[in-house]
Structures
1.
Amino acid sequence: MATGASVPKDATEEPSEESALETARRQLDQAATLLDIDPNVVERLKHPQRVERVSVPLERDDGSVEVFTGYRAQHDSVRGPFKGGLRYHPDVSEDECIGLAMWMTWKCAVMDLPFGGAKGGVVVDPKTLSDEEKERLTRRFTQELRDVIGPMDDIPAPDMGTDAETMGWIMDAYSMQEGETTPGVVTGKPPVIGGSYGRAEAPGRSVAIITREVCEYYDHDLSETTVAVQGFGSVGANAASLLDSWGANIVAVSDVDGGVYDPEGLDTSAIKSHGEQPTAVGSVEDAERISNEELLTLDVDVLIPAAIGNVLTEANAHDVDASIIVEGANGPTTSTADAIFEQRGIPVIPDILANAGGVTVSYFEWLQDINRQGWTLERVNEELESRMLTAWENVQEAHELDADVSWRDATYVVGLQRIVEAHTYRGLWP
Ligand code: GLU
């Protein structure tokens, strides 16, 4: 099968920086070769429907004014309103938002949610803002996006550098302008103002569910499975503690400052997430200190990159010693690294399946909001489990049709088939 990317012979070659958009387009082309689909639809899907670029003036605490750039990329809405996170990060760019919006389109389709894909953000390092500045920036950004977001149009959610509190400010700013409380405009809010129980833990929970299922698929008894998790934010910390509670052996975790390794297993319940306590990983006692790069090449059964994008590249893919990779972050594997893993026979379970619990519980939250209902945590977790298992079965079926089809391609096939079918029914107008 064509991999769509060349495999370098020499791992010491300079790693090429690949943008999320390049990766997303390449993955789309690759998956399209596996389906008998109209090339015109594929061409359409390479481009976003709309990208809103806004200037966001912020009055700093010292009275000076700084102007930040914000984006909202809306990729495809053939199956429903746009859906996807907003990130606050210095590397946010138009191309990154478009690439991440494309992934949201596929992710929603893989989970069979009635949403299309979007992503946005502000080019800012949130660590340089006071809480008050972050709130003012968020409210003004919401105002700038007011014409393009809405409960039936485009529903933002948390992503890197944003959280439940940020979503609460967006909900309030939007509602004040609308003149009525509109909780359905955004998901990932605190439960007391219309957020869903279980939303914050959901991406980590889905990573854990998929890891458990993949281990079973490859006959790894969970109680004998060793796991390394890069990133101890919400996704990594929740995935690690759930897998730990289900019997897996979490031998390494890391945050932005480095990691800890104990071949006997770490007590993850004693390590707070980076958001709760930024020094938690660094203060684990009786464990070997390792770098993030070393964590990625540990000899473990499962590697979960759950921090940022582009960490598995042509520079380190040959050195990865894990038997299975489950993507917790969005886009942690470059196309070239993906091709190397395929050649080496290391299965990579893609982000658009593994971390899709986040947008799935966002969907539950949106349903609760627009119907003025509240679900129990038990109901949320049960429905999430059932949706994850259905998606995993659908992907397994696509994977088993052809032994050469990678897990990523199989996942794309499931999502893309639904999107293309929807485009075919709706047609191009005029
Ligand atoms: N930002 C999350 C993601 O990448 C969630 C998006 C959402 O809930 O809308 O999947």
2.
Amino acid sequence: MAKLINGKEIAEQVKLETRDRAQALREKGIEVTLAVVQVGQDPASCVYVRNKKKACEVCGILSKSIELPEETTMDELMQVVRDLNEDPSVNGILVQLPLPAHLDESAVIRAIDPKKDVDGFHPESVGKLSLGLPGFESCTPAGVIQLLKRSGVVCEGKECVIVGRSNIVGKPMGMMMLRENATVTIAHSRTQNLKEVCRRADILIIAIGKARFITADYIKPGAVVIDCGINRDENGKLCGDTDFDQVSAVADAITPVPGGVGPMTVAMLMKNCVDSAEL
Ligand code: NDP
């Protein structure tokens, strides 16, 4: 049976470290502040925003909530972002995605001051990651790196296969694993022989958004499996992209869903806010 990589526990450690750093800043008169912009009331977004605000409380970070109606125009939203860019009391700006369909997400992300881009989605942040320069890093893949490091998983020289090539998980994950000196393959929906590709992996990281898609026959015995997926199965139960019961019988270590990558994403957001304030 695979060892469980406990994201909840590791996220608590990261949040405690972040709380101490936020406290040290407060003693110097700096209140770490995250602005959270939400447009509309998408139920999943409401849950994510609530979790982020709760994490702010735990870490001693102020959260400034900007809730806008569904029918907010692009001009109005851009003005909100510009005002937050100029507000010296705000260290981090998070625009909760997805935005309603009439709004241009990419333009909104580009409008955020890169110095306050705590989600790490701005082209400048992405470019810095590719060039190996310090900058804000996308929270989910950065959280995966912390899970691996703090669980004692060595990445150097290992075969790492990432399934999924989104801008927020798969692609930055690839850059981060390269930085850790792994040999990286990024697979996607057009990859041929996906099972064979996955079976090469010493470290398999999955972010595809398909409930329990990865079964035991995708896994090399002894692999470390990191499941970024957050899905609801046919009974409405929360589950990952891997079939946990099957895969944990073959893998050496695995992250559960819930309680794996999810809590790390929020913890890394908190860390990015404190990084921003320290800078
Ligand atoms: P996207 O939908 O943006 O990307 C999915 C990726 O998976 C695409 O690259 C797609 O390939 C690939 N893919 C889809 N189906 C297959 C398949 N059958 N075989 C191989 N590749 C496939 O998703 P995200 O990256 O945003 O999210 C992925 C998962 O991670 C979701 O469950 C999401 O909820 C979760 N997530 C979790 C977070 C957390 O905090 N833990 C944060 C962000 C996401 P192609 O490019 O060819 O279409």
